[in-house]
Structures are given as C-alpha cells and as structure tokens.
Predict the 3D structure of the following.
Amino acid sequence: MRLGTIRGIPIKAQWSLLVIVGLITWSLAEASLPELAEGYTTLEYWVSAIFTALAFFAALLVHELSHSLVARQYGIRVRDITLWLLGGISRIEEEPATPSQELRVALAGPAASLAIAVGGLAAGFIFSAFGVPRLVVACIVWTASINLLLAVFNLVPAAPLDGGRVLRAILWRRHGDRTRAAISATRAGRNFAFALVTLGFLELVLTSNASGLWLVLLGWFVLTASRAEEAQIRTTRDLAGVRVEDVMTPDPWTVPADLNVDDVLRDYVLKRHCSSFPVVDGAGHVTGLVTLRQLRFVPASKRSSTGVADVLIPISDVPHAAPNDVLLDVLRTGRNPEGRLLVFRNGHLVGIVSPTDITRAISAAELAYAD
Ligand SMILES: [Zn+2]
C-alpha cells in the first residue's frame, strides 16, 4: 500500500500496520491516557488516542527518513521506506563505502527519535506550566516516552537493529574487514534475540503478564531478521567475483516444443536427472522453459493430450544472462519465481543455472572460510 513520496523516497505501508495502529489506539484510550490524565470522557480519550497513535507513526517515519536522507547524502540510493507491524524498514540499495558513513547512517534514526523525545518532554513541561489541558500534555508525554524507548531499544548492539550497524561500523574500522564485522553483528543480534525470547517466556510463566508475548514476538523478529542478514552477507562474500559461467550447467538437455507432457516425463525427467528443460522449436529457437512444477500441474489423464508448449514458461518471462555476467548482479535484478536462469552467448543457449548450482558454489566457497 503506497502512502506517498517524501523527497523522492516512496513511502509504503503494510496492512499489518492497521492492526498495530488499532491496538495502540485501543490501549491508549482504555488504559494509558485515563491513567495519565483522569476525569475526561470516553470520547475525549478515544479522539486523543487516535491522534497520539498517528503521531507515533509519524515519528517512526521521521526515524526512517533520517536514515534514508543521511544515506542519500553519501550518494547511497534508497529504494523505499516500508512501515509495518513492528516499525519501519528503509531499503537501502548499496552498502556504505566507509565505516564512518555506516556509523552516521545508523545513528541518524535513533538521533531523530531522541530529538523527538527531548522536544516532546520539554513541550510537555512548558505546556503543563501554562495550564494546557492535562489530556493534551499526557498525549505529548506518552509520544515522547515511546520515542525515548525506541531510541534506546534500537541502539542495542545487535543486527539488524541500528545498534548492530553501529557495532558493525566500529568492528569494521578496527579490523578493516567489513564482512567479518557484519557477521559478528548478526551473531550479537542472535544472542540478543534469544535473550528477548527467554525473558518474554519467563515473564509469561512467572507473572502471566501478556506483555511477555510482545517480547517473544520481538525476539522472534530479531532472530529471523539477523539470520536472513547473515545468510545474505555470506552469499555476497561467497559469490564475490563469481561469473555466471563458473556455476552454470553447460549445454543443458533441451526438449522439442512438439512433445507432450507424457513424453517429457518419460524420456527427459526420468532419464536425464534434471528438473528443468529449455524448450526448443523446429527452427532451433528457445521458446521457453519447462520445470517439474508446470508438469505436475497437468492431471495424469491429460498428460498425453497436453503439449509441452501449452504449459511452458514463455522465454520472455525467463531471466537470462551472458556467460561472463557477474552472478550476484544477475541474482539481484528482479524476481525469479522458478529460480532458473538461462545463459546465452550470441543468441545461442550455452547453459542453465539452477538453485542447486548456486548452492553448490556457495558450499564450495564456504570451505575456504573457517568460521
Ligand atoms: Zn533505525
């Protein structure tokens, strides 16, 4: 769901955001605000709660925008910002070039949250001294406190949190090895995630307080994100400098376009030990790709009456590359639902790359690293 564009950066929101906005509004209206400022009507609490929840998300957006704008100052392109259930994500296309750039991009978000917190607390004190209604002051103070919490939580040195990026920048500067620093930061992230989950469970069991569930959820998110980040860092390291021709299976078996599904299963899938075949027409042109997945969709009774041409993925939808293309660049561009890549040299099919080929290349490269 696209919300708009700020300074050329698209701002998006996931539907899960509505759930959390609703939840925050509800807990503000029914619990926090009546506690902070007694004696108002239910309607007044709910209206203030809605404004406060929106202010909270505006503050989240400011946090993410700060990361993005500082990144852009260093010439790093920012693809978009997405707000979702647990906050915001800035998708930054390249990595910062130096440790100090990395450090500044990482600190920009928490610095913004901290500034909002300090500004909010100061405004709260001044407003209450000038007799502004307590409910308004309560909303401002709540927003300020949550931003303080956000700044502190994000500074925990555990990737993928901002503090993890700070840790990465410091280790990078100290040892001069960005990949090693990044892997250490994701390990710290994993340990922090386990601590969060354990604390959450303890809270649930010992105090039967439902907020323990929140900690477990948060820990789970950090765990998943740090694992994904570590895998991505390793892939980038392992495939650095690898060309498409280094991993491709050369001269793949091709299937004539006039065969039916039955023929392909019997004569190709079972005999050739492959799960995907480029399809070639009478003139020798590659017209598409057929994989086990498409063949499986055809019911057994219709296999002999369905042509392979009817089920193939048309060539226009199959990603392709040249043998000397850099593999990582090819993998980064666009979606690849089947995970297959056809390799052409001067218009002639010379190879195919499957997920197995890439896994094998990664496993082989991993042997070179002791960690
Ligand atoms: Zn951040």
Observations:
- The two ends are 41 Å apart (CA to CA).
- The first helix runs from residue 16 to 36.
- The chain is about 60% helix and 15% strand.
- The chain has a mean pLDDT of 86.
